[in-house]
Write a structure and sequence with these properties.
Shape: elongated
Number of strands: 8
Largest sheet: 5 strands, antiparallel
Number of helices: 7
Structural class: alpha+beta
Order of helices and strands: EHHEHHEEEEEEHHH
Helix content: 25-40%
Distance between the termini: 17 Å
Strand content: 15-25%
Oligomer: single chain
Length: 210
């Protein structure tokens, strides 16, 4: 079985910051407007770091997952785990042809699932065939994924993901990371205190796993 390449891209970016400049200025005890642009840049950088660390969308955004094909049973994830002791579910390791892991949950809605046939014509898969939860889209019993698809970039799943409201611990971690960058004015790593606050909100999507 060939490797099923997966990529995810942002179709519609978040319309607002997860934390306002005013809130961060109050947290930093900064007055005046001279550093507003700098603080906003730090908020964007911190938000991206938290998004990647937690593997979750903070503010509503539209994403598109593209794959070479639909999943099949595979045990090659065991090889990609590497050495050591790992705690994961059996369905995650074995995979399931009826379930697709979606990056950056929690998923709010599925916009469309589009497939591409061997002649490159596209078709939208009916939403009557599938459902979704916070991090997956799955087939209803009795349904099956489209077949006879082209070998590369054959599936596109567009969906809306985001957290509302943003948990207080994530907001606090964002502000703390902004404060660290504001103090050092360099490429600061995420502070350990932020990671501790974010620990309960991390999720392992398949792209982060791989």
């Amino acid at each position: 079985m060939t490797y099923n390449r997966r990529t995810v891209s942002i179709i519609t970016a978040p319309a607002s910051l997860p934390v306002s400049v005013a809130d961060c200025k109050a947290f930093l005890n900064v007055e005046g407007t001279a550093d507003d642009a700098l603080i906003e840049a730090f908020i964007n950088a911190a938000a991206d770091a938290v998004r990647q660390y937690c593997r979750r969308s903070l503010v509503a955004e539209t994403l598109e997952l593209r794959m070479d094909g639909f999943p099949q049973y595979s045990l090659d994830r065991l090889d990609r785990l590497g050495p050591g002791v790992h705690v994961v579910s059996v369905p995650f390791i074995e995979g399931s042809p009826n379930v697709i892991d979606l990056p950056f949950g929690p998923v709010a809605s599925i916009t469309s699932i589009t497939t591409y046939a061997r002649d490159n014509t596209s078709a939208v898969f009916s939403s009557a065939n599938y459902g979704f939860d916070a991090g997956r889209v799955y087939l209803y019993e009795g349904s099956s994924w489209p077949s006879d698809l082209r070998r590369v970039d054959a599936v596109a799943i567009r969906y809306v993901s985001g957290t509302s409201p943003i948990p207080a611990a994530i907001v606090q971690a964002l502000k703390t990371h902004v404060a660290a960058m504001y103090e050092c004015r360099e490429g600061c790593e995420m502070p350990a205190a932020c990671k501790a606050m974010l620990g309960a909100y991390r999720r392992l999507d398949l792209m982060g796993f791989e």
